């Protein structure tokens, strides 16, 4: 029984922090939980009504498409740029330590501070982004980042890309350092080009490391509420919100806790299905 005694604290913490909230959320997703009956804690059982209302709402499907677009764009840029900078830093460069610190800074800065900084940079008159654009392309190049929902959504994507690249870069850099140098030397003797070495050696050996990193990055990006909520000042319109901000608004602005819980369960199922299929696809390729 000794191993079980050592595992007990961790298991108890997981049950309290993860299992109980998840089970409770699933239960209230089948009930009518609003601000009116929150104090009495008497929640009428309504079955699948919350799920039916969500799945019959056209706003859910347009937001789902936008969420998928948000996730795909962010993860693609995170992985591609992160891998590029990792390959760059894995070579001998002058001032490599300084460059590495600069590239890690977005990851080290708290998300709230980073989002507030980018929000100031998006100011239509005084923001540095528009100042740079107008200096290069003229006065007509100023973009209404914070007033037009579509541009606000683009601004959120740019901010989140900037924040997510360092994570993928550090993961890739750790994987690159574990690849034996002898493999590249053998490839050089065979006359392999740089692209061939990257395709035949680097990518296959990084795959076991990048697969869980991509899954984690997808889950985090799919559920990234901070950036959109802060840049839009908590009033994201339908054209600039994603599913997780819809959950937040229904819970803490409209006080429809049952519907919010049902939408959270749907998001959980979507991410669970994606993670399962992606990992199985990677294993089948292996």
Describe the model:
This protein is an all-alpha fold and about 290 residues long. The chain has one domain (about 30-285): MetI-like (MetI-like fold, Orthogonal Bundle). About 75% of the residues lie in helices and about 0% in strands. The chain is built from twelve helices and no strands. Helix 2 crosses helix 12, helix 3 packs parallel to helix 7 (about 150-175) and helix 4 (about 95-110) crosses helix 7 (about 150-175). The longest helix has about 30 residues, at about 60-90.
Structure, briefly:
Keywords: Cell membrane, Membrane, Transmembrane, Transmembrane helix, Transport. The chain is an all-alpha fold and about 290 residues long. The chain has helices spanning about 1-30, 50-55, 60-90, 95-110, 110-120, 130-135, 150-175, 180-190, 195-220, 225-230, 245-250, 255-285.
Q: What would you call the structural class? A: mainly alpha
- SSE order, one letter for each helix or strand: HHHHHHHHHHHH
Count of folded domains: 1
Q: What is the β-strand count?
A: 0
Low-confidence stretches: none
* Count of helix runs: 12
> Distance between the terminal alpha carbons, to the nearest Å?
38 Å
Shape: globular
Q: Would you tell me the overall average pLDDT?
A: 89
């Amino acid at each position: 029984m000794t191993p079980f005694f050592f595992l007990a604290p961790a298991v108890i913490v997981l049950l309290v922090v993860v299992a109980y909230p998840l089970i409770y959320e699933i239960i209230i997703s089948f009930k009518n939980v609003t601000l009116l009956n929150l104090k009495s804690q008497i929640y009428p059982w309504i079955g699948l009504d919350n799920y039916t209302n969500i799945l019959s709402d056209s706003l859910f499907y347009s937001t789902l498409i936008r969420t998928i677009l948000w996730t795909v764009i962010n993860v693609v840029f995170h992985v591609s740029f992160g891998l590029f900078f990792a390959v760059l830093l894995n070579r001998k460069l002058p001032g490599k330590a300084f460059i590495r610190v600069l590239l890690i800074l977005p990851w080290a800065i708290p998300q709230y501070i980073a989002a507030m900084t980018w929000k100031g940079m998006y100011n239509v008159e005084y923001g540095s982004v528009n100042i740079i654009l107008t200096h290069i392309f003229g006065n007509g190049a100023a973009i209404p980042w914070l007033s037009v929902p579509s541009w606000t959504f683009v601004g959120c994507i740019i901010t989140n890309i900037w924040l997510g690249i360092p994570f993928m870069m550090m993961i890739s850099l750790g994987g690159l350092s574990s690849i034996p140098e002898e493999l590249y030397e053998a490839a050089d003797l065979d006359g392999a080009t740089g692209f061939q070495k990257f395709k035949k050696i680097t990518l296959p050996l990084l795959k076991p490391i990048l697969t869980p990193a991509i899954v984690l990055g997808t889950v985090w990006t799919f559920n990234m509420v901070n950036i959109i909520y802060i840049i839009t000042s908590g009033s994201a319109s339908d054209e600039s919100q994603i599913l997780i901000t819809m959950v937040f608004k229904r819970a803490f602005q409209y006080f429809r806790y049952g519907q919010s819980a049902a939408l959270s369960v749907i998001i959980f199922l979507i991410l669970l299905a994606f993670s399962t299929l992606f990992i199985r696809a990677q294993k089948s390729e292996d």
